[in-house]
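In keeping with the milestone schedule agreed at the kick-off meeting, the structural modelling team has produced records for the first pair of proteins. Each record is given below as a sequence line and a C-alpha cell line. The laboratory manager (R.T.) confirmed that both were archived under the project's standard naming scheme.
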Amino acid sequence: MSSSAQVIVLNGGSSSGKSGIARCLQAALPQAWLAIGVDTLIDVMPARLRLGSEGIGFPDDDGSGEVSVGAEFRVLEDAWMTGVAAMVRAGARVIVDDVFLGGAESRRRWESALDGLEVLWVGVRCDAGVAAGRELARGDRVAGMAEAQAELVHRGMTYDIEVDTAKAEAVECARVIAAKV
C-alpha cells in the first residue's frame, strides 16, 4: 500500500461498522470516493439466489449466524469484483465494504481482481457482543450473524491498518484510515 491508494477495502463482520466508516471516509477524504458494499450486490441479485444453495443462504433465526455461499453467487461476485476494479481503472476511487466469509481466500480473490491497483487493506474489528447488540438494534439482520462473523472474517488476514469500532466511533476510525490514504 502507498499513500496514493485507489481502493480502500474494509473487511469486517456484520454490524461491525464498515458502512458508517465508509460514509465518514467519503466526507473526510478530499477526493470523491464511491462506497460500494457487498450488501448492494446481494440486493440486486434475483430473489432465488438469496434463498437457495447456489446463491447466498442466510441462516434461519436459530442464532447460528452461518451464511452459506454457492457456486452461482461466486460467479456473480467475481463479475462484481471485476466490475469494481474496472471502475477504479477508469479513474474512480472506491471504498469496498465487504465481509470476508472465506477469510484469506476472500482477500486473494479481491487481490486478483485489483491486481496492479494501489489498495489499502483495512480490518474493521468489533467485539462480538457489541456487534450483536448493534445487529439486534438494526432489526434487519438475522440473529447470530454478527457474533459468528466477528472473528471469522479476520482469520489468516493481514492488514495495512486495523480499527476497532467497539472502542472508537466511525468518524474517529475514518480519520485514522484517511491519514493512511
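The second protein of the pair:
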Amino acid sequence: MKQWLARVTSNVAGTVIEAWQELRIHRLRVILSLIGVGVAVCALTTVVALGAIAEQTSREVNERYSGRPATLTASIFGSEGPVDSAVTDEAWIAAMDRYEIDYWSRNGYGSLTAQFVDGAVPLATQVVDVDFAEIHRLRVVTGSWFTERDVTRLAPPIVVNEKVWDRLGRPPIESNPTLQLLGEQ
C-alpha cells in the first residue's frame, strides 16, 4: 500500500513540476491553449443547452395541440342522429375508472349565442373537462382555469379568448364578470 501511495504521489508531483516548467518556458502557448479549451467547452455547453431548449419548446408546442405522450383520443359518432350523452358519459367515466387513468377530458365543439351590449353574437365553443389544460399544457393569461369546485356553482364558469374579453369591455376579474348565453341549453 505504501509503495502504491508513493508511486501516485510521485506521479502527481512530477506532472505538476513538468506543467510548471512548461508554463515558465512557453507562457503564451499555454495561455492560448487554455483559452482555446475554455472557448471550446463554452461553445459545446452552449450548443447542448440550445439543443435542449429547442427540444423542450418543440415538445411543449406539440403537446398543446395533440396532448402529452400516451394521450388516447376516442371519437363517438351516431349513424342515426345524435348520440345519447348520458350513456356515453357513463361509459366514458367507467372506462377511466377501470383503467385507472388519472388525467382525462372529454372534448366537444359547438356554437352558442352570447348576448353582448351591441346584440347577440354566435360564438364557436369548445366544451372540456378540468384536466384538459393539464393534458394540453394550456395556461390562462388572466383569471383561472376550471376546478373541481366549479361543478357545484350555480353559474357555470367559462374561459374566454381575447376577442370575447375585448367585446365584454375587459372588466376586472375581481368584478366577477358574466356572459349571458341565449338558448335553451
